[in-house]
Design goal:
The protein contains ten helices and three strands. It starts with a helix and ends in a 5-residue tail after the last helix. Keywords: Cell junction, Cell membrane, Gap junction, Membrane, Transmembrane, Transmembrane helix.
């Protein structure tokens, strides 16, 4: 995994985030990525080699290991970190698309032309939806992986001794897990940080939706029905659309949809 690329990606989206998003980014880097890279990989190491059973029956060791550890914790967390950061890439791409569209517009109409977007990085129009959907996706990924971890291993505990009776084992054999206490601590830590990230994403989603609803209510209160009936004075109408939609009124008329 290219951690430098991951850091650059998330740092790029940081400037478009709210306070909740910046805290989420700090939790991901300081508590999840750093712990995963520095400590968790070393604690797990070669799991199958350190998994010992008190039998010499050929194949028994491998079958028992696969039964108790169908998916490695460390690989499951790596997938989780990859999937949970993918939505941030979509936000960066959307902003880059806006900036490129604005650049082409200036080339075509001149530097003194009216801008398509008041601020290409401002969460308005399509970018607002992209950002909110990215939050929902991140919450879904974390919830899914926390559930998968619980479902696959039947909890978050790490016993030091497990009993295996899978074929071709001759009978019930005892198998020993290396560093069970360390693995238990790291597992609980990663689960707790995932829950914290879920709560932060939920708070940020509620904040953005609440802010949008508040702005909509204020606009309808200040200009009841006149906005949609076209009865506002042009300067007020421009102001309302610029503030609420993030684009200037002439541009709004030209655009089929906000992206």
């Amino acid at each position: 995994m290219n951690w430098a690329f991951l850091q650059g990606l998330l740092s790029g989206v940081n400037k478009y985030s709210t306070a909740f998003g910046r805290v989420w980014l700090s939790v991901v880097f300081l508590f999840r990525v750093m712990v995963f890279v520095v400590a968790a990989e070393k604690v797990w190491g070669d799991e199958q080699k350190d998994f010992a059973c008190n039998t010499a029956q050929p194949g028994c060791h491998n079958v028992c290991y696969d039964h108790f550890f169908p998916v490695s914790h460390i690989r499951l967390w790596a997938l989780q970190l990859i999937f949970v950061t993918c939505p941030s890439f979509l936000v960066v791409l959307h902003v880059a698309y806006r900036e490129e569209r604005e650049r082409k517009h200036r080339i075509k109409h001149g530097e003194g032309c009216q801008r398509l977007y008041a601020n290409t990085g401002k969460k308005r129009g399509g970018l607002w939806w992209t950002y909110v959907l990215s939050l929902v996706f991140k919450m879904g990924v974390d919830v899914t992986f926390v559930y998968l971890l619980y479902h696959i291993y039947e909890g978050y505990d790490f016993p030091s001794l497990v009993k295996c009776s899978e074929e071709p084992c001759p009978n019930v054999v005892d198998c020993f897990i290396s560093r069970p206490t360390e693995k238990r601590i790291f597992t609980i830590f990663m689960v707790v940080t995932s829950v914290v990230c879920i709560l932060l994403s939920l708070c940020e989603t509620l904040y953005l939706v609440g802010k949008r609803c508040f702005e909509s209510a204020c606009m309808l209160t200040l200009y009841p029905l006149d906005l949609f009936a076209g009865k506002l004075w042009p300067d007020k109408q421009h102001c309302v659309f610029e503030k609420f939609m993030g684009v200037r009124m002439p541009t709004f008329r030209m655009m089929q949809s906000l992206v």
